[in-house]
Amino acid sequence: MQDSLLPASHYDRIGGTDKIRRLVHRFYEIMDELPEAYGIRKLHAESLQGSEDKLFKFLSGWMGGPQLYVQEYGHPMLRRRHLPFPIGISERDQWLMCMDQALGEVVEDALLRRELSAAFAKVGDHMRNKAEH
């Protein structure tokens, strides 16, 4: 139960496990469907199920809910785990485009959508590892 003196976590505000699962599932559907997302889609395995499961578990903890990813895989070390994949401005923007569309379709609360979008943008910038001019 939430302490009434603490602000609600993003996990609670989004609606918990079911809503995060829906968000992640829709995110990967969009990535798989949009030609503009081909650059990041090709960085993933043919089946997106493993990626979907890991992102769900990561977001659960990242949003303030159960630390499912940490329990199974240890510290996320996001940047390090993504170093094998070339991530530049284009890849970051494609990922954010898919996530912003999924947020728009799944999350009713406009303020929460903006907060999550801004947080994802910060993480996306941190993930860049490709030298660009």
UniProtKB/TrEMBL annotation:
The keyword Metal-binding applies. It holds the Pfam family Bac_globin. SUPFAM superfamilies: Globin-like (SSF46458). Coiled coil: none annotated. Signal peptide: none annotated. The keyword Lipid metabolism does not apply. Keywords: Heme, Iron, Metal-binding, Transport. GO terms for molecular function: heme binding; metal ion binding; oxygen binding; oxygen carrier activity. Belongs to the truncated hemoglobin family. Group II subfamily. This is Globin. It comes from Sulfuriferula nivalis.
